[in-house]
Amino acid sequence: MEKFTELTAIAAPMPNENIDTDQIIPARFLKTIQRTGLGKNAFAAQRYDDNGNENPDFVLNKEPYRHAEILITYDNLGCGSSREHAPWALLDLGIRCVIAPSFADIFFNNCFKNGILPIRLPREICDELMGDARQGANSRLTVDLEKQIIIRPDGNVVPFEVDPFRRHMLLEGLDDIGQTLAHDAEISSFEHQASRAWVPSISMGTAK
Prior knowledge:
This protein has eight helices and seven strands. It is α/β, with parallel strands linked by helices. It is globular, with a radius of gyration of 23 Å. The termini are far apart.
């Protein structure tokens, strides 16, 4: 998993509540178990018309938001189905950070497991960042996970909180498997010691 330390990027404003996982990646695209290739179908219902042509009014079809790596929305992002394909699609689309007042719990957890930083901030702060994002390419946000701050285009700083363990996992680029493999030497040593300590007992009967 790619490390997340500091990100300076274009932020796309999506001022909607209750953006569910079926909007992020519609069910008809869930036939794959691959984490790549889903980005082209992210937000398909909003991005494309019935003929597969781009909807020019959708924010991610506009410049400079085609290149956005930060998404700012409103309450209850990622509600609905628990599908892990939703963060896979966002990541494949290029989104590394999502900011909202609240998230659905499973989606929130899945973001961390897939290298996306979800940040909870009060609605009024999201409104201010939304205003920054609407200024376009000259208005980039910097998300510093090490310091746990967002630096706005005018230099003002917005602090945020992240669970220390999840913060560590993102900073080091570790998913659950990577976290386990980081302790490979200790695991091997334990297994070796355990195998040496185990001596099978053999019960022998008395011959008559």
